[in-house]
């Protein structure tokens, strides 16, 4: 994996070489027509940008040459100097030198000496004659080299199209592998295995081309934190961790507004004023951390503050008052499950802000953005100590890991992003509370429902649970969405595999319970369940 410094260096090189090519073109236009204002303005702009970028990267000599050149183009723009006489060769030499310096940076070589060039540029600014080098005959020719950048800018839509094609290839790969195993021909099996390896390499190469460091987004937040802190009259220190973690650029773009909202919310409502913090025995300065880390096939982005925290009991009361959950069931819910109510649309209105420490305003919008990616939004909080919001995101949005299972002789898939665990339990392992089936899984009471009831039981409430309806071993997929766990009883598990999710065709695309379809290696169509929609349906129809 590239380091952040390598990534920024490559970006600088790519842009600098493009600047150099554009400078060479525009100065030639200016030589043909010294009054060409668009060319002159563009030269001034390019020099200014190169100066800023070079200084930011620590390439001070490049920045100095660009600064001197910018000054002279500024004088030409203001009519204090004309692009004639000895000014012309000196500026041409300056642009050639910039090209040499940029190529030297790319090759990790020593930068050329620019003392004479800078002296001549200073002479021009002072109105003095430069000291020009004598022309040297070169039968094999301006030692000049024409070089292209080894970096290319590609439109995201082109990468999207390429990734879609790879997705189709992955589907056919699975079909070819299945057919080769059924036919049993050794040569066909070997060819299919080779095809599979090539398809895998191509898939990962295309996905890798779309990856960017989260630092490209994180680096925008110091200014945001400064501005919001000043507006809220709070003292906030920002720490950024994990800028080198790579993620799909489209995913990063989609979560930008969500992350901005969480940071503003943390400063505005999570962190206390300096006086409030000191009164509660905390340092006057609040601490906010933006963190990214890789976890298996996912990327975890966290917004962590050491502020007020969330009053879970207040949230629990509000959830009961608003009819989101019955009092008997609410009493059995864990703190994490209660905090999930913060993500309900409109749960926290302005008059309720102080009762739940301001958390929850707009969190439903943040959650919807994460849902659109097939990700998860989690919240962990300790009253008086702080809150952590965790965005669990896939590294790619085209190919996803999924768990395949069978229900009523049909194959279904659930994205692994929302799969917490799979368990097999006997009827005696269940108990009934408030008409709802519960199972003790990993020291936690998890509501359980037969999936067929959710899919086929109409719009009315689910019938009260009865352990007598359970016979023999029950295969259960524990899904996790917005800090809520739900057990889905299925007929049997199949396997785990990567799938390419395709959108449902009309009119099936109006069915919320399915997030799309995929094709299995056997050629069968497999429906992909939408866990957020299933969870919402269960909450709306539970006994």
TrEMBL record:
Keywords: ATP-binding, Chemotaxis, Kinase, Nucleotide-binding, Phosphoprotein, Transferase, Two-component regulatory system. Residues 399-540 form the CheW-like domain. Its EC number is 2.7.13.3. InterPro entries: Bact_Chemotaxis_CheA, CheA-like_dim, CheA-like_homodim_sf, CheW-like_dom_sf, CheW-lke_dom, HATPase_C_sf, HATPase_dom, His_kinase_dom. GO terms for biological process: chemotaxis. The keyword ATP-binding applies. The modification Phosphohistidine is found at residue 48. It catalyses: ATP + protein L-histidine = ADP + protein N-phospho-L-histidine. It is an enzyme of class 2 (transferase). GO terms for molecular function: ATP binding; phosphorelay sensor kinase activity. GO terms for cellular component: cytoplasm. It holds the Pfam family HATPase_c. Residues 194-397 form the Histidine kinase domain. It comes from the Bacteria. Residues 1-105 form the HPt domain. Signal peptide: none annotated. PANTHER family: CHEMOTAXIS PROTEIN CHEA, SENSOR HISTIDINE KINASE CHEA. Involved in the transmission of sensory signals from the chemoreceptors to the flagellar motors. CheA is autophosphorylated; it can transfer its phosphate group to either CheB or CheY. This is Chemotaxis protein CheA. It comes from Hymenobacter gelipurpurascens.
